[in-house]
User: Fold this.
Amino acid sequence: MSKHFDWKTTTCDDWMAWPPPEHVRKMIGKTLDPDQCEVDFDYGFVLDPYCECDLPDELQQVGRQFFAYDPKRKIGLYFEDLPDATIEALSEKRKAADLEGWRRVLGDHTDGGPP
Assistant:
């Protein structure tokens, strides 16, 4: 499994201080090497994963958002900004990050049994 980032202490300022426009993020996404990327998630606004907007209350739906992070280049991108082939290549890392998230929530009760 990839190294776990503590997303609670990693802020947008730490590695995404500059969220570029969407078309630039999509171009950057094409250059990420899935073998070098680490995957983790954060809880945030579904419609604003980069914290760019001042969303009205009715649009502030929170959900689990997956990011691919290239530690060498210090670039993190929301999965929706990645090409389909990269998302597919990262699918096992995403599943591992998802399982780790449930372990954080449920403790060791992630084997399908009751907590």
